[in-house]
Amino acid sequence: MRLPKFEYFEPKNIKEAGAILKNESSAKILAGGTDLLVNMKHRVECPAVIVNIKRIGELDYIRQDNGDIRIGALTPLKRLHMTALITENFAGLAEAAFAVGSYHHQVMGTLAGNICQQNRCMYFNQSKWWRSSRPTCYKAGGEICHVVNKKEICYSTYCGDMTPALLVLNAKISLTGIDGTREILIEELFSGDGKAPLSLKPDEILTEISIPPDANKGVASYIKFANRDSIDFPIVGTALWASIEKKEYRVAFTAVDRKPVRGQNVEAFLKGKKLDEKTIKAASALAAKEAKPLKTSVYSPSHKRRMMGQLLQSALNKVVRRSTQ
Amino acid sequence: MKQAIELNINGDVHEILVATHHTLLEVLRDQLGLTGTKRGCDLGACGACTVLIEGEAYLSCLMLAVDAIGKQVVTIEGLSEAGDLHPLQSAFVDQGALQCGFCTPGMILTAKAILDEEKHPTEEVIKQKMAGNLCRCTGYKKVVEAVMRVAEESGQEV
């Protein structure tokens, strides 16, 4: 399967990369390539310009800085589940990295690449031949969203594994453009628009992910339910962070909406409560109402909603076990 | 657009003219004749195109050839030394861990990357890390047995 032709750039630093991105509106950033190149082979993304940022050396690191953990955008996912600083303090993040695709994807894929991956849909992530049997969907450049049969709207689903694990740690991200760097909460990155899922300015690149010091004062977990454990995107993924002592909890889901979602109702319900069997069951029953999944994969929305509760229950039980160890 | 580049494949430097939109897999097979690296799904889902880049298991179908400039690439053709099979290759033969052989180069190179990373991995770790290499005939039991055998036998680099 040939890739479509494109103009290729290998900037030496972020500023140079930002300048190219600003000049070329259809340019795409290439990091690990495990998402973008597949979409290009399927001809659902055909950027005129590719900006390979892997030659920018300063974006691959995991370090401690005044209590924050700072992770460079190009840090391979494999490093996250093989670095003691992460596995010992942020088990949920390591679990999410280990859950991404296959081992090869974890070697090639980068943390920022996983966060910034394209939304997915059964009408979008298909070969050109498969898609030719119906009008081109809105996300791929047509007019209609086949999920809801409406024009000029896109209900594709965000399926990243790393983002929910970072959401529950209250992680921040640095976006660097030609005018400088701004830091935002990771949830602010996601627009909720299936066609353009990321709120990035044209010249901005996600350069760093930082985890605040209070994140390691709790226990975290990420549980992914997928068709095949070995390689698939999540049908539903659930991340949980719990401070058993303070009775504070944070919950996030992936693959259930156009963007990753925080389980705010579940969090409010759990706040101040001890995690006993009754509370866990009641919280899990609330999980299904945190998102409105649509049929963007072969799994039905009702199945996804049920799995949100099931996974939350498993995650809560896991953090209880983990906190007593 | 074509670009003249140098690629270090199996220790040999190749000067070639490549199109920037060609993958490493395309260049290995179609330009350099190194057909040991297999084109399976061509979408990063089967592991048949695995090569080693700086010792790590990469999917060559999802890597641009120009991205391999300056990196040490090892394909299955570069594994044996002076006509002697690599211990992993011998173990695959001895254990009968292949049938049609299409997935075997990818399996062996992934196994090498795993064993270079961790000398004595558990069976569970081998299964988890090799789960991205699909086989459609032999199955996986003998493959895991072959890799385990090498992991148990070797005290030295594999």
Q: Topology, pairings included?
A:
The complex is a heterodimer of chains A (325) and B (158).
Chain A lengths: L6 E3 L4 H10 L4 E3 L5 H6 L7 E4 L9 E4 L2 E5 L4 H6 L1 H6 L1 H9 L3 H6 L2 H5 L12 H4 L12 E2 L4 E2 L10 H6 L4 E6 L2 E6 L19 E7 L7 E8 L7 E10 L4 E7 L6 E2 L1 H7 L6 H11 L13 H24 L1
Parallel strand pairs in A: 1-3, 2-3
Antiparallel strand pairs in A: 4-5, 5-10, 6-7, 8-9, 8-10, 11-12, 12-13, 13-14
Chain B lengths: L1 E8 L2 E8 L4 H8 L18 E4 L2 E4 L12 E3 L12 H9 L8 H14 L5 H7 L11 H13 L5
Parallel strand pairs in B: 1-5
Antiparallel strand pairs in B: 1-2, 3-4, 3-5
Write structural notes for this entry:
The complex is a heterodimer of chains A (325) and B (158). With 325 residues, chain A is α+β, with helices and mostly antiparallel strands. Chain A contains 12 helices and 14 strands. The longest helix of chain A has 24 residues, at 301-324. Chain B has 158 residues and is of the alpha+beta class. Chain B has 2 domains: 2-78, Beta-grasp domain (Ubiquitin-like (UB roll), Roll); 87-153, [2Fe-2S]-binding domain (DNA polymerase, domain 1). Chain B is 32% helix and 17% strand. Chain B contains 5 helices and 5 strands. Chain B has helices at residues 24-31, 87-95, 104-117, 123-129, 141-153, and strands at 2-9, 12-19, 50-53, 56-59, 72-74. Chain B has a 5-stranded mixed β-sheet with strand order 2-1-5-3-4, sandwiched between helices. In chain B, strand 1 and strand 2 (12-19) form a beta hairpin. In chain B, helix 2 (87-95) packs across helix 5 (141-153). At the A-B interface, helix 2 and helix 6 of A face strand 4 and helix 3 of B.
